[in-house]
Design goal:
Largest sheet: 2 strands, antiparallel
Number of helices: 10
Structural class: mainly alpha
Number of strands: 2
Helix content: 55-70%
Distance between the termini: 49 Å
Strand order of the largest sheet: 1-2
Length: 235
């Protein structure tokens, strides 16, 4: 491929950020270190990415974002693509049995069907959680000690929120935000949910309505919290 058609890592970041706003250079370098993408090297030593490299990155990031596939499975899919084969279709995120769905994590009443599908629970083993989040074993141990990241109740599997916290913890660490600070955040969240519990108490005795009310009020409180954080950051 001609040199003019090769892109720098900065240009690749610009292309990917529209769909994957959290993409970072360290993430791309990590995928390269895992052998999932192999950019060319210019004479200056800088990485140069081809259209094929960008297509691979798009595929990797998309299945990680929507399905939290372990890197081992993604690697198998890429190997199939390299051989001219079509990898398995992943129409929707992996669903969990209905009894393992957390009512508090359900989409608010009236939400579109595709929103409800995204809320279906993941079932990741501990090893898969570490691989999906990129979190170090020692860091996960510390988070588990404080009950900040835990398997879903009554199971040995981790859900979507555990993955989200693990990823955030890894990315916050370079800024000096560690388990001590996350412990405070957990405490604040518990207090906020106490407000929600008081608000929904009158609905607990109404069959069929308590779950929807809890989900609706929780979602509204999340919006308020996010808005207040944005306001605080602007001061």
């Amino acid at each position: 491929m001609a040199g003019a058609s090769l892109l720098s890592i900065g240009q690749v970041m610009t292309l990917l950020r529209a769909e994957f706003p959290d993409i970072s250079i360290s993430k791309i370098r990590f995928l390269e270190s895992e052998g999932l993408v192999s950019p060319e090297r210019a004479a200056s030593g800088y990485r140069k990415y081809s259209e094929t490299d960008i297509e691979r990155l798009n595929y990797i990031l998309r299945v990680q974002k929507s399905h939290y596939l372990p890197l081992k499975v993604i690697r198998e899919h890429l190997e199939m693509m390299d051989r001219g084969m079509v990898p398995p279709k992943l129409e929707t995120p992996r669903p969990a049995p209905p009894e393992e769905t957390d009512p508090a994590a359900a989409a608010p009443a009236g939400a579109p069907k595709n929103t409800r599908a995204r809320q279906q629970q993941l079932r990741l083993s501990r090893a898969e959680l570490l691989e999906a989040s990129g979190l170090a074993e020692a860091a996960l141990v510390e988070l588990e000690k404080e009950h900040i990241v835990m398997p879903r109740r009554g199971t040995n599997y981790y859900g979507r929120d555990a993955v989200a916290i693990a990823i955030a913890a890894r990315r916050l660490a370079p800024y000096g935000i560690d388990v001590r600070h996350l412990r405070q955040v957990k405490s604040y969240a518990s207090r906020e949910y106490g407000i929600i519990e008081q608000a929904i108490a009158p609905y607990q005795r109404r069959a069929g309505s308590s779950r929807e009310v809890a989900a609706d009020v929780t979602q509204l409180m999340i919006h308020v919290h996010a808005a207040m954080m944005r306001i605080a950051s602007e001061r």
